[in-house]
Amino acid sequence: MKWIEVKVVFIFNDRQLAVDIISDLFYDLDLKGVVVEESQVEGFEDWDDHAVIPENDAIIGYLPDDNTLGKKCKTIEEGLARLEKKIGIQYRIFYGNVDEANWAESWKTYFHPEKITDRIVIKPTWRDYLQNEKEIVLEIDPGMAFGTGTHPTTRMCIALIEKYLNKSDTFLDVGTGSGILMIAAAKLGAGKILGTDNDAVAAETARKNLMHNQIPESAFAIINGDLVNGITQRFNLAAANLTTKAVSILLENIPKILLKDGIFICSGILLADKNKILDEIKHAGLRNIEILVDEDWISIASRRV
Fold it and tell me: Is 195 helix (H, G, I), strand (E, B) or coil?
């Protein structure tokens, strides 16, 4: 498959806010992740459409070169125009062709081992890491699922799983992506583990990552499906690192798949949407028990009562 690299170069006084909201433009198109480049640039005054792209702050996403490409590019361009008008983000957008083999390698230089809690480390499969005896190492090759696990929303989600998951608990990961949350749950002692994803490529990537981490096939299952549609089993703990919109939809059905006193952990939510999601959690019959904040993102743990 051919892919299109979409590189959004930007200048804004709050870099992290710009990273988050530009990334959301890609996430809304169901991309599993983006590459973030960091540097400095003075301005766009001397740039033209044929300029060599300088090293500077940028968000890079990869879109499949298929019949949806034009519509997706237009959505990103319109979203960037709104951000420029609303809050003053300066930007330029560049497109490039890349084949699947080069796409798979192009972003690996940005991904290194990272300690995300006191004892959990995320390590790409192609990097070396000297593990101490107290650490739990999650090895990931995101592949086409493209979720490295080091974004603030994933870090917070794993921290809450580490805190609230009990040994032998049943665990559900909604929108599993690269399988990072399933691997974390398994290594923290979960019993039966189930993951769902509406992307068949992501589901297969998750399966490969679980196997690479020596999680036995008898301990997990992955369903290619939308959110929790068709799931009848109930779980001790369910996690969803998605978007505000997806979490809102999911909350309508979460009580049906949680055991009594079961925990629901949701992440991928912008701080600005905090009150909206808390209201929906309450309406779903769940009780909020903890909120984590990292930069402009929040993760919430709630309990079915």
Answer: strand
